[in-house]
Amino acid sequence: MKRPLAVFLPFAVCVCLLSGCWSKKELTDLAFVIAVGLDKTEDGKYLASFQVVNPGNVAGAVQRGGGAAGVPVSIYTSTGDSLVEASRKASEKVSRLLYYAHTNLVVVGEEVAREGMDGVFDALERNQQFRTTARLVIARGHSAKDTLSVLTPIDKISANKIIKTLEFSELAWGQTMNADVWWAIRSLASPGRNPVVTGVVIEGNPKEGKRQKNVQSSVPDARVTLKGLALFKHARLIGWADGPTARGIMWVLDRIHQTNLTIPWGGKREAIGYRIVRAKTNVEADVKNGQPSILVHIKAEGDISEARVPINLADTGVLFRLEKQFERGVKQEVAKAIETAQRERTDVFGFGEAVHRADPRLWKKIEKEWHDRYFPELDVTVTADLYIRRTGLRNRPYIEE
Amino acid sequence: MLFQWGMRRQKERMNDGVQQEGADHSGEAADVLEEPLSPELAVNIDIIRRATGESSDIVIRRFSLGQETQMKAAIVFVDGLVDEKNVYEFLLLPLLTASFPLPLEEKERIQWIEKKLAAVGGIEQVSDWKRLFFNLFSGATILLLDGAALAISASTKGGQYRSIEEPQTQIAIRGPREGFTESLRTNTALIRRRIKNPNLWLETMQIGTVTQTDVAIMYVKGIANDDIVTEVKKRLARIDIDGVLESGYIEQLIEDQTFTTFPTVYHTERPDVVAANLLEGRVAILVEGTPFVLVAPALFIQFFQVGEDYYARFDIATALRFLRVLIFFISLVAPAIYIAATTFHQEMIPTQLVIAIAAQRESVPFPAFVEALAMEVTFEVLREAGVRLPRAVGQAVSIVGALVIGQAAVEAGFVSSAMVIVVSVTAIASFATPSFAIAISARLIRFGLMFLAAILGFYGIMMGLLIMVIHLCSLRSFGVPYMSPLAPLIPSNTGDTLFRVPTWMFRERPRLINQKNIVRQSGGQKPQPPAPSRQEKGDES
Question: What is the reported pTM?
Answer without folding.
Answer: 0.84
